[in-house]
Specification:
Length: about 1050
């Protein structure tokens, strides 16, 4: 390298300049980028060093040899040598140019290094090397002197090397702006005409550096939090003149307008360079955590910085868009403003941000801009902040904007959030959102920590204050006297309304037995003098006042649809914090006969997908009524079912299910739910004709017909199924019946081995049993289905024995699957087998004494999603200690956080602790005073449903292979238990005697038989009669519908008769 550089610069000069410094040291000293620009030139120079040691001598030698050669053949060699010499000279020139460039680069780099060193030295000499303590007063240098130093410093600024210097500079600038000496305040340089433009560019660069540093700071670190406040103060100072002490002097008053424009220019430059995005980052990092890291003054400063350009631009759409997207979308921002920085919240209210944003988001284009920019979860946070602002403005701005502006904006935001969830759903829903449910989009960690507060904000939408404002039109509508006729003013349904509803059925329902029954009821009501609502109603479905109510209901229905995990919270707020349900009911009543059913049907013909707001009003009413479930008449709902309006929404199905559940949970007179006028024979004939309306009625509201008739209908379903499968008595006596052989000591094993592999059809058919005794011999016996019944009863008795660990008993002696059954081999297959055996017993009307826990039976019937079912109600019978602990948590007066609980459950399994999460991510979700009720219900649900989910599924699979699920819809859970184990009534000896069969010479008048009945009737107590029944039938309860339906029938047989046979005469 010395040979190459020697042609341009002496090596001693280079060595003197570099001293002992190595090239690598210089590269890493601070200007690696500039030095790297000459890397290619350096490589070329190094390649040249590997050329021949005497390149010029070789070329000349070739020329001499060719020139003095006498052979003509050397002409080609001469031309080749000439070409090589020419290339060599070109290479030499390139080497010289490379050396010059390399030298210039090194010299330039050395000059820049020296300049940076001198600039930093000047800065340190002027300001010192350490920031002043808070209690120290700085001695300010002349502003003009500082200006030139700062100009040079900004040009060489490096965040890594000059971070502390920039902090010192910031403190100087703030101190100088708080000085009224014109020579010392830094704004004086901006007032200098010769320096104004340079000063503006310099301040812009300084503020931009401050923004870049703020974006990377961690507010949870105390030192960096102080730096964040310092740089926010810097931004606040140079984007407005209100804090400039120099302007307080009267002599500088005329300069305020021009200086205000100057700060607006600086502010506009910051906005164009991403100020709002930086402010959002700072807010998210500082607020979206378990405990907010930002303090009130810092939050107030950020809000001030966000509002200044907005006010300066006279609330332009562009700035409104930025503040909506970047500031109002910060999770739980308004909550933090209310608790940490009320001054900032007051600023938003003073500047009417709520009203202006509502007006801005009204247009579809602006709404599209927001959603194209925001990720769906942050759009939800925007909605939450928006709702919180509305709650704060409930007494001022909200009443003016509630409808249609605020209602429209909230509905559109909810719909777009719902669309977002739909687009992010896929086959693998791996992400859990505590508000939106499952979808595939990853969840921001900052959102995860703030989502609890976001949910709290959303709950304000159905708070009493907001509901009152939103439904003000509904309140006014109900308060008015409907023009043109009387209305039903009662929140419930009066007799006149019922009569009117029933009268209208004839207009809309095709001729059938239910219609005729209603006609007869109508006649009796009219004869009693009942009045009715005028035909056509007092209001129209499409009227302005009704449409207003429907639009508000539509918004809340959208909330239920989108915020899937908060549905019960929404309905609770609507039902218990307002009079919405009875008021909407009164509006429905005023729409005409059958609550405007004809109007709804006409609208359905236009809006076939039931998307009109009027249908949303109906859906919301149905959803809300499920929580109240008062004694509404069912006439209107039957009308709805018969006109197939049930296709509107599953919420109507859900409502009718709740009506049904009231039959078992609320005490009413026996005929309360029955339509007595319905002739069961005619109704059953409608079902046999596969009448769609009758099928819908029996599926959705089976309790309108007596329980006895439903049991007969169930038996008819079974009989029809047997006939369809060819399982009549004649068929069963054929060789196709199944014969199994079981040992007394291995009932379960032998039965499982021989029956588990049978098809459902074979299990439904005749099964003959041959018992093998302990000696290995066939047992003698007369099989009139009694042997199979004995096998079935003994098998179920053994599998339900807790010692087998397939089932356990509650404190009330009721059976449920054991959560530790997996310790038994093939436990799920055994559960499926047991389910099939119990299904066989129900199929054959064999009563077995198996009392099941209701939380288990509810899953077998298919009612585990019941709206009126609460797992916590059943918990005391399963785990009294856990119930006691949960009750303690519920009534705990202090902070539940002190108990250090999470949404998880630790289970000790053979010495190993296994943690079960009660909800996704439950191990990291603490139990608080706000969510402890949810925790209690989730824990109870886990113990009674989740822990035995696999066992229950296997049992249901076996049971439903025999019993069709649609048949079970006829019964509630208690009724289903009665179907399995018999009726909860006293033993009717008269009925038992009338249905007893006699064999071997016995008859009803036989003396021994008379003794038996006389002892049972006169000497036995009720408990003893139940024990007798259990002895002879294996069940202590009589069968449903009496002993006529006992399978096999009770019989008395004389086994051995001697010569002195007594006929009993």
């Amino acid at each position: 390298m010395g040979w190459v550089l020697g042609k341009v610069v002496d090596q001693s000069d280079c060595r003197a300049s570099l001293g002992n410094t190595k090239i690598t040291d210089l590269v890493f000293a601070g200007d690696a980028v500039i030095f790297a620009e000459s890397l290619e030139v350096l490589v070329m120079a190094l390649e040249a060093l590997h050329e021949e040691a005497k390149p010029l001598g070789l070329g000349q030698l070739a020329q001499d040899q060719v020139m003095f050669g006498t052979n003509e053949s050397n002409r080609g060699a001469f031309l080749e040598a000439t070409r090589e010499a020419r290339e060599e000279r070109a290479n030499e020139r390139r080497r010289e140019e490379a050396a010059i460039k390399l030298q210039a680069t090194v010299r330039g780099w050395l000059v820049r290094v020296a300049h940076k060193r001198k600039t930093r030295e000047k800065f340190d000499q002027l300001f010192g090397t350490e920031p002043l303590a808070l209690d120290q007063t700085a001695v300010l240098p002349q502003a003009l002197d500082v200006f030139h130093v700062i100009t040079d410093f900004i040009k060489i600024f490096s965040v890594k090397r000059d971070g502390k210097r920039f902090e010192i500079l910031t403190r100087y600038l703030l101190a100088s702006m708080d000085n009224d000496n014109i020579k010392l305040t830094y704004v004086s340089c901006g007032m200098n005409k010769d320096l104004t433009l340079q000063w503006i560019h310099q301040i812009k660069d300084i503020l931009l550096i401050a923004c870049d540093i703020m974006e990377k700071l961690q507010p949870e670190i105390s030192k960096e939090n102080r730096l964040l406040s310092l740089y926010l103060h810097l931004l606040l100072t140079f984007t407005g003149t209100s804090t400039w002490k120099i302007l307080r002097a009267q002599s500088f008053e005329p300069m305020k307008p021009s200086l205000n424009k100057l700060t607006e220019n600086i502010m506009g430059d910051l906005v164009s360079r991403g100020l709002f995005n930086i402010l959002k980052t700072v807010l998210v990092h500082g607020l979206c955590r378990g405990r907010a890291a930002l303090r009130g003054p810092a939050i107030t400063t950020i809000i001030t910085l966000a509002l200044r350009p907005l006010m300066a631009a006279n609330y332009s759409n562009n700035l409104l868009s930025l503040i909506t997207i970047h500031i109002l979308s910060v999770p739980a921002l308004i909550h933090h403003l209310a608790t940490l920085a009320p001054e900032a919240l007051q600023m938003l209210q003073t500047n009417e941000i709520f009203e202006k944003v509502v007006e801005f988001v009204q247009t579809e284009q602006n709404l599209r801009i927001i959603f194209n920019t925001l990720e769906g979860s942050y759009a939800l946070c925007l909605l939450a902040n928006f709702v919180h602002l509305a709650h704060k403005e409930s007494d001022r701005a909200l009443p003016k904007l509630a409808f249609p502006e605020f209602n429209f904006v909230v509905k559109r935001l909810l719909e777009r959030c719902g669309e977002y969830v739909t687009t992010k759903q896929s086959s693998s829903l791996t992400q859990w959102h505590p508000v939106l449910g499952w979808f595939s989009q990853p969840f921001d960690q900052h959102l995860n920590e703030a989502m609890f507060l976001v949910k709290t904000q959303l709950q304000l939408l159905w708070s009493g204050v907001v509901i009152k404002v939103m439904f003000s039109s509904l309140i006014s509508l109900v308060a008015e006297d409907p023009p043109g006729g009387e209305s039903c003013s009662s929140p419930g349904i009066t007799s006149s309304c019922t009569t009117s509803s029933l009268a209208s059925i004839g207009n809309y329902v095709s001729s059938n037995i239910v219609k005729r029954a209603f006609d007869r009821r109508l006649g009796s009501c009219n004869s009693a003098g009942s009045g009715g609502m005028r035909g056509g109603g007092t209001r129209k479905l499409g009227s302005r006042e009704v449409s207003t109510v429907a639009m508000v209901c539509s918004m809340y229905n959208s909330a239920i649809t989108t915020l899937t995990q908060m549905k019960m919270d929404i309905l609770t707020g609507l039902c218990y914090k307002s009079e919405m349900v009875p008021q909407v009911w009164q509006v429905l009543q005023s729409l005409g006969p059958c609550c405007g059913l004809k109007s709804f049907l006409d609208l359905l013909s236009v809006s076939t997908k039931a998307t009109a707001p009027e249908f949303h009003m109906l859906m919301l009413f149905c959803d809300a009524t499920t929580l109240l479930v008062t004694s509404f008449t069912i006439g209107w709902w039957i009308c709805v079912m018969y006109k197939e309006v049930l296709s509107l929404s599953p919420c109507i199905h859900f409502y009718i299910s709740c009506i049904r559940e009231m039959h078992e949970d609320i005490t009413f007179p026996t005929p309360h739910w029955l339509i007595k006028e319905v002739r069961i024979s005619s109704f059953l004939s409608d079902l046999e004709r596969v009448d769609l309306q009758a099928q819908v009625l029996i599926q959705k509201m089976p309790h309108i017909i007596p329980h006895t008739e439903r049991v007969l209908l169930f038996k008819k379903h079974v009989a029809n199924n047997k006939a369809k499968l060819g399982l009549s008595d004649v068929a069963c006596s054929s060789p196709h019946s199944t014969l199994i052989t079981v040992h007394r000591s291995r009932l379960v094993e032998n039965g499982y081995q021989q029956l588990a592999s049978l098809s459902p059809r074979a299990l439904k058919g005749m099964i003959r049993v041959r018992f093998i005794n302990e000696h290995g011999l066939d047992e003698a016996g007369i099989d009139q289905d009694g042997v199979f019944k004995e096998f079935l009863e003994e098998t179920l008795k053994r599998v339900f024995d807790p010692s087998l660990n397939l089932f356990r008993l509650t404190s009330e002696e009721r059976l449920f699957p054991s959560q530790t059954s997996f310790m038994t081999d093939k436990h799920l297959q055994l559960f499926e087998f047991v389910g099939g055996m119990l299904g066989k017993a129900v199929y054959e009307s064999i009563v077995v004494d198996c009392p099941f826990a209701s939380f288990f039976l509810s899953q077998v019937v298919g009612e585990q999603q019941s709206s009126l079912y609460s797992s916590i109600d059943e918990l005391p019978s399963l785990d009294p200690e856990l119930y006691k602990s949960l009750t303690y948590i519920k009534h705990y007066d202090g902070d539940v956080l002190d108990l250090d609980l999470t949404f998880s459950y630790d289970e000790d399994y053979l010495g190993e602790i296994i943690t079960h999460e009660l909800r996704p991510g439950g191990k990291s979700i603490p139990v608080t005073n706000d969510n402890k009720i949810v925790y209690i219900h989730l824990m109870a649900h886990f113990k009674m449903h989740v822990q035995i989910r696999d066992q229950t599924k296997a049992f249901i699979r076996g049971f439903r292979a025999i019993i069709c699920p649609e048949w079970l819809s006829l019964f509630s859970v208690p009724e289903f238990q009665r179907l399995i184990s018999g009726d909860n009534i006293a033993v009717d000896l008269k009925d038992l005697r009338e249905n007893t069969l006699y064999y071997g010479g016995f008859h009803d008048k036989h003396r021994v038989v008379s003794w038996l009945w006389d002892i049972l009737e006169r000497d036995f107590k009720e408990e003893e009669r139940a024990l007798f029944l259990k002895f002879v039938t294996s069940c202590s309860k009589p069968p449903l519908l009496g002993f006529t339906n006992l399978e096999p029938p009770f019989s008395i047989r004389c086994v051995e008769v001697g010569d002195d046979e007594d006929t009993g005469k």
